[in-house]
Write a structure and sequence with these properties.
The chain has 1 helix and 8 strands; from the N terminus they run αββββββββ. By secondary structure, the chain is mainly beta. It has a 6-stranded antiparallel beta sheet. The chain starts with a helix and ends in an 8-residue tail after the last strand.
């Protein structure tokens, strides 16, 4: 398993009790028409549009070299929130190996909430923030 995926897995296991806890949403599979295909990172990476629409899944490469706590999307800085509805990922296929980014999809849930989904990866929920991400070490 690549270093990026291993690090992400450790973080997701640590957050598992919060992010995958009960209480919200449905645990049923999403309808077939909403399924997404696994992606591979290409070129400079996908970062989505400057003004994303709510409930639209945009190709997005989550920079994961230093962890997955932060994201830049739609002109905002996002910080992992550790919680969200209990849903199954909508991305089908195998995750690509290695790299500095995890290719998947970012969906704006509301003006201040977003979710990142990728193959072989649980959904990661983010909240918009005014905080500045720390430098990557």
């Amino acid at each position: 398993m690549g270093r990026v995926r291993a690090g992400a897995l450790v973080l997701m296991l640590a957050l598992g009790g919060v992010a995958c806890g009960g209480g919200g949403g449905s645990s049923e599979e999403p309808p077939a028409e909403k399924r997404l295909k696994a992606r591979k990172s290409e070129g400079d990476g996908e970062v989505g549009p400057k003004h994303p629409k709510v409930q639209v899944a945009y190709p997005y490469d989550l920079y994961s070299h230093c962890g997955i706590e932060w994201a830049d999307f739609g002109g905002k800085t996002w910080k992992i929130s550790g919680g969200g509805p209990s849903i199954s990922t909508r991305v089908e296929g195998d995750a690509p190996e290695g790299g500095n980014a995890t290719p998947g999809y970012m969906t704006l849930l509301s003006k201040d909430e977003a979710v990142f989904e990728a193959a072989d990866f649980p959904p990661v929920y983010f909240k918009a923030t005014m905080e500045t991400p720390p430098p990557c070490k």
